[in-house]
Each structure stands twice: as structure tokens, then as C-alpha cells.
Amino acid sequence: MSVLKFCAWLEATPVAVAVRESLWAFPALVSVHVLGLVASVGLVIWFDLRLLDVHMRQSTPMRVYRQVMPWAFAGFATMVISGALLLSGFATAAYGNLYFRVKVAALLLAAVNAVIYHRVTERRLTREASGLPSPVAARFAALTSIALWMVVILAGRMMSYTLYSH
Amino acid sequence: VSQGLDHLFSLVQASAVARMIGESTLITGLLSGLHLVGLTLLVGGVLITTLRLTGVALAELPTAAFDRAVHPAILIGLAANVVTGLLLVSPRIAMASANRYFQIKLLLLVAAVTFYFSVYRKAMRGRPLPPGLSARIAGVVGFLLWLSVVIAGCGFILLE
Q1: How far, in Å, are B31, B32, B38 from residue B83 at the CA level?
Q2: Residues 6 or more apart from B157 whose CB is under 8 A from it?
Q3: What is the DSSP letter of A97?
């Protein structure tokens, strides 16, 4: 089955029809999606700012991560579930939308960036004593994360304004 | 007053900037994206401070450090959102000002900003709070106020 056929099938499911046609489902899902976004990305940015030595230097990146990121993941799960439901209602239009493709690409790159950070950079961090300036690799991961999430947000908004105009 | 406002709104809507924004989906989408980026910065700053004030996380850090680092970020996010918000609403300011959700959003925004500067920031700096208001309650109330601004904002653009 091609991706486009899958999108068409998805769009015809009862859930997708409800998302499209219900008076309250769409605004409610968008609101939840926005709340999940500001909570998750809002907190991820502060962890990135820790890696950039901007804030919370009295604590180690690992300690900040363990305390802050569970809240970010809760927001992230909210965002993914509401986003998947929203996508189901408009799957074929989204598939052909340039901004949606940019958004998905930026999300994938953000995931790759996070995996590289955890597999490589973080291990180096834990070996070093706390109180030292962040290594270049950690700063690079933080800046990459912030930049990619900005692209995700901007492309996401552009997508909703251009979904049926191209 | 009402006539003066109507006149002001028609002047704003007739301005070159408002007409340019109203006629361009791309500019509107970009401004809306920047509005959401500013919101992320603002709410993220409030959220991380709330985690500290409520004692849920980061108890090893002094609250004053949050005021130094997070307060500027919250101000930048707020300023970005006032500017992008005014630009976004400029092509339809007359309609927006009559919209129930927009009115609620502005009232909640005034409440959130007032609470932030009068109580929340004091809690961030470890200053004495009004009686009955501990830092925990200040943290929760401040966060919920900003959350309600976001929800009313979504109501405005989606249910108008």
C-alpha cells in the first residue's frame, strides 16, 4: 500500500471523520496539541540552556535532565497523541503539504540529535566533574535541538495555513 | 469612547501593514509561528520556575537563580507575543475586540501579567509574599493563569 493510499484509508476511519466533522473535537485537539507543545518544547529548551551553561549551573546536566525531562515527556506524549489524531483527519492534504514534510524532517533530525547526545555526548559529560564548562559537543547538541524545534513549530503553523491552498 | 475605538480600529485595519498581513497567508502563517515560538519561551520559563517553586523538582537550586535567568526569557517571550499578536489581529481588530474568547483572553492576560509581576516574581526571588500565599500556591496559580490565556487564545482562533 502506498503512503497516499494509507492516508486515504486513515482519513476514512471513524475517528478521522469525527476529528474532521465534530464541532468541538478539532478545536479541543488543537488546544491540547498546543498545550503539549509549550510544555514539552518549553522544558526541552531549558534543558538545552543548561547544556549551554545559561542557567542551573549549580546542578549537573544529568540531575537537571532526570528532574525536568519526565515532565517534558508527559507533554511530548500529549502532543504526539493529539497530533496523530489531528493528522488522521487531514492525512492526504498533509501528505502533499511542503511544510508538513519539513516538519516531519525536523522532528526526525531532532530525534537523531537526541540519540547522538545520549549515546555519545552524555557519556562524556558523566565522566567529567561537575562545575566544568559544557563541552563543545553538548553545546552543539543543545543549539541543534533549539533550532530544530523552532523549525517544527514554524513549519507546523505554516502547514495549517496552507493545507488546502496548494 | 466607543466611537473613538471604532474610528481607531478602522484606521488600524486600513493601514498598509494590516492590509499586507490580511492579504498574505504566508505572512500570517509566519507571524502565527513566531507567536507560538514566543509562547513556548514564555510558558517554558513559567513551567520550569513552577517546578522549582512547588518543590516538585530542582530543589537543589536557589530560586533567585531562576529570577536572574528565567525572568529575561519570560520578558522576551512576552514582548515577542505582544508584537506578533498585535500584528496578527490588526487586519481584523474590530471583529476580534467584539469576540468573547478574545475579550476573555485579554482579561486573563492582564491577570497573568499582573500576578507574575506582583506575586510570582517575588516568590522567584524568595521575597516575603502576601499572607496566605506560599511560594507553592504562587507557582500553581501563576502557571494556571498562563495556561488559561493559552486555552482562551486557542478558543479565539478556532471558534471565532
Answers
A1: 9, 11, 10
A2: none
A3: -
Which pTM does this prediction carry? 0.93
How far apart are the CA of B75 and the nearest CA of chain A, in angstroms?
Answer: 14
Q: Give me the mean pLDDT over the A97-104 stretch.
A: 96
pLDDT of residue B65: 87
pLDDT tens track for B30-84: 999 999 999 999 999 999 999 999 889 998 898 888 899 999 999 999 999 999 9
Shortest CA distance from B150: residue in chain A:
A35
Give the span between the Cα atoms of A146 and A140, in whole angstroms.
10
Average pLDDT of A123-134? 72
Given a cut of 60, whether residue A166 has pLDDT beyond it is: no
Instruction: Pick from B21, B25, B37, B40 the residue to mutate for testing the A interface (most A CBs within 10 Å).
Output: B40
Q: What is the structure's pLDDT at B125?
A: 87
How close B74 comes to chain A (CA, Å)?
A: 11
* A56-75 pLDDT, tens digit each: 988 889 899 999 999 999 99
Shortest Cα–Cα distance, A7 to chain B (Å): 24
Q: Mutating which of B27, B47, B74 best tests the A interface, going by the most A Cβ atoms within 10 A?
A: B47
Is there a contact between A68 and B32 if contact means CB atoms under 8 Å apart? Answer: no
